[in-house]
Design brief:
This protein is α/β, with parallel strands linked by helices. It has helices spanning 2-23, 55-64, 96-102, 116-124, 137-150, 154-176; strands spanning 30-34, 40-44, 50-52, 106-110, 128-132, 187-190, 193-195. The strands form 3 sheets. The protein has a 3-stranded parallel beta sheet.
Length: 201
């Protein structure tokens, strides 16, 4: 009787130990990262299905990866020309059902263009939402590097970012030479009126 109890106990112990060991095995197919809102998430190491709900980020994706990895676009994405071949997902109002059918692994979006409540709805379907925050031109350059790392395109992203940085420095030198600083307004849309920047007066 005692031997049976001992054997049962040993069997339970081995089962528990194996299960614990299995749970502790690291998953080399995913990695942990944070977006620009400091939201931590796990993303696949190899992202094969991506898209953006912001036209400017869609352009960055086309610069960095094969178009086969880009699964969709918004109605406002118009560059490069081959973007028109992609299925359309309304970003405002968000067409969640359409987005889910395209099965992107991650959706890139600019902060301020998608409410966090909407992002949570997307993430409940298993799709990750990666926010990028732009407060100045350098943030755009940094985001190219950031997206490049996530898409395993570090080298290509580095070249583009370096080229943009050089161009920005050149523009700054030219602007510094002006005796009178002109005031500039960048209008993104006229109907409705939408301008670049915050608290423009």
């Amino acid at each position: 009787m005692n031997q049976k109890i001992i054997l049962i106990f040993c069997g339970l112990f081995l089962t528990f130990a194996c299960q614990k060991s299995k749970n502790n095995i690291p998953n080399f197919h995913v990695h942990t990262t944070k977006d620009d809102l400091h939201r931590e998430m796990e993303l696949p190491v190899k992202l094969e299905r991506v898209m953006a709900l912001t036209p400017s980020i869609t352009e960055i994706l086309y610069k960095l990866v094969d178009s086969k990895r880009i699964v969709g676009r918004t109605p406002h994405c118009n560059y490069p020309h081959q973007v028109y071949l992609k299925p359309v997902v309304s970003s405002y109002p968000l067409d969640l059902e359409r987005l889910i059918t395209l099965k992107p692994q991650v959706v890139f979006v600019k902060d301020g263009m998608l409410a966090l409540e909407e992002a949570k709805k997307i993430e409940r379907s298993g799709i990750k939402v990666f926010y990028l925050k732009y407060d100045n031109c350098q943030d755009i350059v940094n985001s190219i590097d950031q997206i490049g790392k996530l898409l395993d395109q570090d080298y290509k992203a580095g070249l583009i970012a370096d080229s943009m940085s050089m161009h920005l420095h050149k523009l700054k030198r030219e602007a510094d030479a002006f005796q009178i600083k002109p005031k500039v307004l960048i209008m993104i849309s006229h109907d409705p009126i939408f301008v670049f920047g915050l608290n423009n007066k």
